[in-house]
Amino acid sequence: MNVKEFEGRNEEEAINKAIESLGLDRDEIDVEIVETKKAPFLFGGGRVRIRVHLEEERQPDYEEPEPRQPPAPHVEPLPAEGDFEKAMVEYLQGLVERMGIAARVGIGFREERKLGLNIDTPDSGILIGKKGQTLEALQVIANIAASRLKEGAERIIVDTQNYRSRREQSLVRQARQTAQQVRRTRQSRLLEAMNPFERRLVHTALSEDGDIETASEGDGLYKRIRILYRGPGK
């Protein structure tokens, strides 16, 4: 609501001034008399001040824009049939390149029911991600592709800069140090969130400690392990 004020010697004069100034008709304005000053008898020259309330121009109703459809995510095509190892190397190579990372993928190791793929790149930190989560995601994608390419395919292990071995050693060391703290304080402690493989590693590392108990807590893929003191012989 827009408000303007006008003055005149009487109400009519003040209204006429408002009409002339605003370029409106009398029935288009809402007048409020704010102040009336009467001049002493015989002197004339009284004053009336009015306030005109103007309706602001109505803005057009807002229309919610049509939601923009996000671009369809790129899905890396499955490896071509043929040599399984070669196909998986080429598949992972293409996947990494589409991330904008220059890298060379090769066979890291061959074990029964396992195939290790190693990514050699100066940008290993980007591929590893926070707590190895980016590397883990690449491994999940590679295993999905492998299972579609070959029935009963080997489990694909994706690594770079020997990260997985270093990570496993660090987790076991951290778990044992935390177990010592629990023994000393008799208070349970929580480890960081880990994927299922890492949790199994910690459970196994502490399974022979008779006075220590481990339990997973949380929901989803990444859970935390609580290390508890249960006492000797329990």
Name the shape in a single word: elongated
CATH class of the largest domain: Alpha Beta
**Quick one: biggest sheet?**
3 strands, antiparallel
- Order of strands side by side in the largest beta sheet? 1-3-2
Query: Which structural class matches the secondary elements?
Result: alpha+beta
The value of Rg in angstroms is 39 Å
What fraction of the residues are assigned to beta strands by DSSP?
Answer: 25-35%
Alpha-carbon distance between the two ends:
78 Å
> How large is the count of helical segments?
6
Could you state the order of secondary-structure elements as H and E?
EHEEHEEHHEHEHEE
Residue windows where pLDDT falls under 50 for at least 5 positions: 40-44, 57-75
Helical content class: 25-40%
Number of domain units: 3
Q: What's the architecture of the largest domain in CATH terms?
A: 2-Layer Sandwich
